[in-house]
């Protein structure tokens, strides 16, 4: 039995991760947070983390960090670590400080980013001379999201977008993509995973897009971005959490499309793959549990600072897709 410590287990995402980990064989979940839990922990305090990781086999970080204190302690104690943070700055800092560690330290582990990178790698390998990859998240207007997740998305939407032609204002450029039987208009955003996918896949243009299930909500957010309101909210101390109706669905869709510069005879030159999930946080929890499950079974083969796509292929995600909360469409 492997003991997995989930830091910030009391949060909206942490609770989902604990629930998903409960379904993993030979795993015992230990919860940790500032509030009442099995273990009290402060992610800014190395001493607190040292005490929390006693007799722990894997650490999952569902708490935001400005400084990778948890990763440092885990590396020193030779404990594998999985972090759901979407921030490239944190990943770069861990890479710079912990290069050459002998245990795995995984970051950007979730639905978007995380599974998005695995899907992109899969569709790219099916084509030659891939010229462009588009990664799009269709979010639910009824999503149960905590303040940290809201602020993260507002910041990304507010930032300018880098393309091979130059810079663009965030959330202004529109693109139509097909999600199942419906065409939806999504808007391009800055997303930190883009930089790391470009390094790994060698594709010159990787674009990230998002929209909400309600076109009216997407339009309101676009107008707030144009007026500069989103940037102010992202920098503010306000704790923003959208209203969630538990009696209504909060489905999320993730679509990846790759286009080839030179299609072979009989091929269209385009490959797409789509994942439907019961919720964004639910999907992130399943991906995290699947990564922990893989690490427990293959720990001897893993080391260093990693993204999920560095060691997991699409077929390795079969456990997550075998649940009724997430499905794959190719």
Automatic annotation (TrEMBL):
Gene3D superfamilies documented for this protein: NAD(P)-binding Rossmann-like Domain
Highest rank taxon of the organism: Bacteria
Record-given protein name: Saccharopine dehydrogenase
């Amino acid at each position: 039995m492997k003991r997995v410590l989930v830091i910030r287990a009391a949060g909206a995402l942490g609770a989902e991760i604990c629930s998903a980990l409960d379904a993993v064989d030979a795993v015992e979940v230990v919860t940790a947070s500032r509030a009442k839990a099995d273990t009290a922990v402060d992610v800014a305090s190395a001493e607190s983390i040292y005490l929390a990781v006693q007799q722990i086999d894997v650490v999952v970080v569902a708490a935001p960090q400005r400084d990778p204190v948890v990763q440092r302690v885990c590396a020193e104690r030779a404990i594998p670590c999985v972090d759901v943070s979407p921030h490239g700055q944190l990943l770069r800092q861990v890479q710079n400080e912990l290069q050459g560690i002998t245990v795995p330290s995984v970051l950007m582990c979730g639905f978007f980013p995380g599974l998005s990178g695995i899907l992109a790698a899969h569709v790219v390998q099916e084509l030659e001379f891939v010229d462009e990859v588009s990664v799009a998240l269709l979010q639910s207007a009824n999503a149960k999201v905590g303040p940290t997740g809201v602020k993260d998305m507002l910041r990304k939407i507010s930032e300018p977008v880098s393309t091979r032609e130059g810079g663009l204002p965030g959330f202004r450029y529109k693109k139509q993509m097909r999600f199942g039987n419906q065409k939806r208009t999504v808007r391009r955003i800055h997303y930190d995973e883009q930089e790391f996918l470009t390094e790994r896949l060698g594709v010159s243009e990787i674009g990230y897009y998002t929209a909400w299930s309600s076109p009216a909500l997407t339009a309101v957010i676009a107008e707030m971005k144009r007026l500069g309101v989103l940037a102010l909210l992202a920098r503010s101390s306000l704790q923003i959490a959208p209203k969630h109706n538990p009696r209504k669905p909060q489905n999320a869709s993730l679509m990846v499309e790759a286009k080839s510069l030179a299609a072979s005879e009989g091929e269209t030159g385009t490959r797409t793959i789509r994942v439907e999930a019961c919720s964004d946080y639910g999907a992130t929890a399943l991906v995290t549990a699947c990564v922990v499950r893989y690490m427990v079974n293959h720990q001897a083969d893993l080391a260093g600072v990693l993204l999920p796509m560095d060691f997991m292929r699409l077929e390795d995600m079969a456990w997550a897709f075998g649940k009724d909360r997430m499905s794959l469409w190719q």
